[in-house]
Amino acid sequence: MIEHRHTALRLAADGLPVLPLRKGKVPFGNCRACAANACSGRPNMKTPGPCTCPAPCHGWAAATTDLDVINSPTWAQAWREAAAVAYHPGGANLTIVDLDNPAAVAWANQALPPTQTVATTRGEHWLYQGAMRSVNGVRDGVDIKSTMAYARWLGPGIGTMTALPEVVRALAVKEPSTVRPAPQVITVPARARNGECRHRAPAYLDRGIAMAEQRITQARSAVHATVYRTFLAVLSTHGRCGCLTDAHIARLFTAAQTKGETPRHCTDAWTNARTRLGL
Question: Could you say which of 79, 110, 254, 270 has the lowest number of CB atoms within 10 Å?
Fold first, then answer.
């Protein structure tokens, strides 16, 4: 709709990076080759694709304040079909606490400092000045949207925006106690000839676990697939000798949860990797 383009131009002029959304709150591809998610295979185009047509292709990273891009022929068809306007909060140094139900709103009124609020169809967006890592499901019905995320524009809201408080930043920190390791320690009885597991040497096993943690931590997209492939690699090397302990598994699960994976997703990825290897 043409009015969505007008809204986007106004927001971009105020420094808010914007992008058009299709029905279902899904971004458009930025060129014909990327129509219907052809360039990346990522679900619903919510993360940037690898192509350069223009770069970045779509998702939150395509949000822009460039008025020429917003008015370009590339985006013209998207605006005609658009169902809404979205914006990249982290790109404007903002953080949204997305409260998805009345219980979450009630919790926020008790636990969070007051700030600018925007009504949504099911709850509220609380906007704070400052950017942080985006994490889904920090509490029941509560998501954090800031960097590497987008949110639908629902209006300016009410109230005065305040600085991002530590209590919101702390929501993104996964406590080690919440880690749910795999149901059992890997103890498949396949040992070295002398009866000792060669991987118990700290210089080998610890380096392998540390490299796996780093691989997960540095993932910029397709986090769930990266977690699964990393679990698979660890198990293929260490899964048959009995050297992995609850502490090692907890380190891997903690790294995955820090990237936004839930304990259930971690357990599923671990179980699937074990099944793939026949453990």
Answer: 110
Instruction: Tell me the per-residue pLDDT of 18-71, one tens digit each, with 9 for 90 and over.
Output: 988 888 777 776 655 565 555 544 444 455 555 555 545 567 777 889 898 888
Per-residue pLDDT tens for 219-251?
A: 877 788 888 888 888 888 777 777 777 778 888
Q: Measured between alpha carbons, how far is residue 51 from residues 37, 129, 268 in Å?
A: 11, 32, 30
Tally the C-alpha atoms within 13 A of residue 122's C-alpha that lie toward its C-beta. Answer: 8
User: pTM value?
Assistant: 0.59
Distance CA(139)–CA(79), nearest Å, equals 35
Residue with tokens 């209590």: 167
Cβ atoms of residues 162 and 112 within 8 Å: no
d(CA 232, CA 109): 43
Q: In which residue are the tokens 């360039």 written? A: 39
Query: Tens digits of per-residue pLDDT, 173-222?
Result: 754 444 444 443 333 333 333 434 555 556 677 778 888 888 888 887 77
Cis ω before 56 (30° cut-off from 0): yes
User: Which pLDDT value is given to residue 45?
Assistant: 43
Cβ neighbours for 141, distance < 8 A, ≥ 6 positions apart: 99, 100, 101, 103, 104, 123
Q: Where are the beta strands (DSSP E) in the chain?
A: 18-22, 26-27, 84-87, 94-99, 116-119, 124-129, 135-139, 142-145, 151-152, 162-163
Amino acid at 186: I
Type of residue found at 103: A
